Amino acid sequence: MPITSKPTPILYSPDHRLHDPRYELENGMLSRYQEHPARIEKVLMHLKQLENITLVPPSETVPLEILESVHSPDLIQHLQKESQAVAEQEARNPDLAPLYRYPYIFPIRSEMHSYLSTSPEPDGCFAFDTYAPIGSGTWRAVFASASLAWQGAGLLIAGEQVAYALCRPPGHHASYDSIGGYCYLNNAAIAATRLKNLGPGAILDIDYHHGNGTQSIFWQDNQVLTVSLHADPAQEYPFFSGYADESGGEMAIGSNINLPLPAGCDDSTYLQAVKVALQRIRTFRPRWLVLSAGYDTCAADPTTSFMLSGDAYEQIGRKITKTGLPVLVVHEGGYAIEENGGLAARLLDGLRSKGGE
Ligand code: SP5
Ligand code: ZN
Prior knowledge:
The protein is α/β, with parallel strands linked by helices. The chain is 33% helix and 15% strand. The chain is built from 9 helices and 12 strands. An 8-stranded parallel β-sheet has the order 4-1-7-12-11-8-9-10, sandwiched between helices. The model has no long low-confidence stretch (mean pLDDT 96). The structure holds N-[3-({4-[(3-aminopropyl)amino]butyl}amino)propyl]acetamide and zinc ion. Residues 207-209, 294, 296, 333 line the site of zinc ion. N-[3-({4-[(3-aminopropyl)amino]butyl}amino)propyl]acetamide binds at residues 27, 131, 170, 173, 181-183, 207, 209, 237, 294, 296, 303, 332-333.
């Protein structure tokens, strides 16, 4: 990296720490919540040590009217209200803190849809699983995370070629009106909504899990190409979307591409799929790229099956750089806490490489 090039902005907010659930449910048992604050702190530590970066503190918040276009106003109000209600409950009964509300009744049948928004038990009306509990600091944390993505998009609009938004909680499983899979607000979608001011663009999702929320938000939008590489949903979370035949709504046929990959996927299979994804992206002629970057594809991840090496992330970055597109990296999953910082650094090195492979 020549020393003459501009420093790469790394966006970070400490507010992510306000969200720290202890437990997730796995087969009827409680286990440690994998989406832990240390995830982002470790990545920050690594990225800070890179040459030619600049740490950017939060200075912008995502406007409410934008939030309420990407997500339903009812969902936004729900997140705010539940965080407030938990704070009040903790104030009345400090022994209970930290308290997180988990959905436990899911009114999925239409004959059970009465009084959704006024129910005293609304959590299951806005969640598709139990992986996104709400605590007193959840709203502030998710708002800060979404705001970093928004701000990062602004940096690209101002002319940056690469920026990295250290979003936590992640976002790609959150759709217009439902949360799940550790995700509450769709950070990548919020960034993309701002970037649409530059013209059409693409979101490439390299998290291990299908970005079902991002897919559904842009399902009818032919100005945003959504491409996701992920473990085959026939075997892996989120199970009910991410199949190869999901190609976009009637207003946007061909604007969604899913590339499901087999369990145990290695570097060469994965990089071949990245190549296919980038060919499809080039054909779309986008002006910008949002990269939903999850590191749960790495061999060391305790929750998944893929076998990617550190080298693969640098290769992914290099291949993306060759498109010439300005890239906003939005942090998604990755639960090998000791590894992810190094992997993010490799990805960013690749994204800042000059010339050939
Ligand atoms: C952002 C992100 O990476 N979210 C992932 C959320 C889901 N993670 C846990 C899924 C585990 C499903 N395990 C089912 C095991 C059945 N025995
Ligand atoms: Zn994931």
